[in-house]
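Figure 2 data, in text form.
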Amino acid sequence: MRMVASRKRTRALFNIDRIVHHDLYAYGLQFSVTWASDYWGVSRVIYVCMIVPAALSISMLAYDLVRNMKSKKRNDRQMLEKSMPVTCSNCKKRFNKTLVMLDFNQKQPKLVNVCPYCSTVLDSTEEKDSVIVHVAEHQKVIT
């Protein structure tokens, strides 16, 4: 949208310039430095006011594209690290994401990783990542 408006403004300025330099001379306009210097000054200011925002917009667009490409590469690398393939010891199927369920076999329920195919609880090698979930006595869990 902004590009269309900028293009229309540029075309309007070129039309005004064509009128001043071609058409008005046909009607008897005499060249004079007094009116020409004012006209040139105003037209240059208008062109600068159009070029500076366009240059800033293009530079910000390029900056955002480069930044997004870098963050996408970083996110892709993080996703690869998070989605390491896991093999179930029971059914021998490979998958990238485990199911997370509550294990009520112990006194304190905790979250465990479960195979999405055979519902076998997978061995958790990192106990520091385990989360204990507190469940009140009056709450019921529907399975």
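Caption note: Confidence is low (pLDDT under 50) at residues 125-133.
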